Amino acid sequence: MAGPLLLFGGTGMVGHNLLDLAAERGVEIVAPSHATVDLADGKAVLAAIRRVAPSIVVHAAGRVGGIEANMRAPVAFLTDNWDMGRNVIMAAREAGIGRLINLGSSCMYPRDSPRPLREGDILAGPLEPTNEAYAIAKSAVQRLAAYVGEEDSRFRYKTLVPCNLYGRYDTFDPKRSHLAAAVIDKLHRATADRATSVDIWGDGSARREFLYAGDLAEAILAAVDRFDTLPPVLNVGAGVDYSVNDYYRTAATVVGYTGDFRHDLSKPVGMKRKLMDVSLARHWGWTARTSLADGLARTYDFYRQSPANKPR
């Protein structure tokens, strides 16, 4: 690369995993923190891009969270993610950066699709209400990236659409975490407390696709290396989904929880199923490598090493 890779979002789970992998492979990355560059400040973003003069920009920053967090603060999920995405894309264009990789989300797809979600399905139907604000923002940023290239072919701004993520550097706070991390935290604490039962929201039949964050980091570096052949929008997923009950059972084996499960039917469960079609990614030459059991084991190892994750 003529210049370094400029990463926005280096302090999040995706960013941390990407920085670790880049260090292993000798890839030069500049990843300013929020304290250094506030992505809500368009002028600050433009100044950072001009200062670094990168060969490519990767936008992996965002406000993220599970169902509870999205339902509690929809305004922030919409405005924060739109502001960050818009500022990064418009600043990159103004600075003359020709290549950019934007990270979208499977939340951009319509709810309750009867088949695996294909790249052309974005904005093709109603969104899931429990994370609609986040999905609207991510969809708008993806379209903005595409519009920039449509207006001027010198700019090729592409979007990777990962499914739900988990892994090292995840957020385990149950008020903000996604399913996989929340399950690990809940079962760890239940085991420490010798609890005999753990609640599951809903009947546990809803199905979710989760990708180990280290696999996404590999996909991002592959996209950087083979940017010219990268499709404008590409699903990056595990290619298989599991029920909520499956996640609890697999995590219980990893954590060592031996108690029962109780279903709380009063709680929201979100979309019934959300599986992405990853045939285009396979054709392009990328496939996820980490199994659910291995990914959860690595995530739990990271969880136990953090002093913040102690029984309350």
Oligomer: single chain
Any guess at the CATH architecture of the domain at 5-166 and 210-236? Answer: 3-Layer(aba) Sandwich
In round numbers, the mean pLDDT is 93
CATH level 4 superfamily of the domain at 5-166 and 210-236: NAD(P)-binding Rossmann-like Domain
The largest beta-sheet arranges its strands as 2-1-3-4-5-10
Outline type? globular
Discrete helix count: 10
For the biggest sheet, the summary is: 6 strands, parallel
**Strand-residue proportion:** 15-25%
Under CATH at level 1, the class of the domain at 5-166 and 210-236 stands as Alpha Beta
Give helix % range. 40-55%
The SSE order reads EHEHEHHEHEEHEEEHEEHEEHH
Fold-level CATH name of the domain at 5-166 and 210-236: Rossmann fold
Could you explain how this protein is built, in words?
- It is a single chain.
- The protein has a domain of 189 residues: Rossmann fold, CATH 3.40.50.
- Helices cover 42% and strands 15% of the residues.
- It has 10 helices and 13 strands.
- The strands form 4 sheets. Strands 2-1-3-4-5-10 form a 6-stranded parallel beta sheet, sandwiched between helices. Strands 11-8-13 form a 3-stranded mixed beta sheet.
- Helix 2 crosses helix 4 and helix 6 packs across helix 8.
- The model has no long low-confidence stretch (mean pLDDT 93).
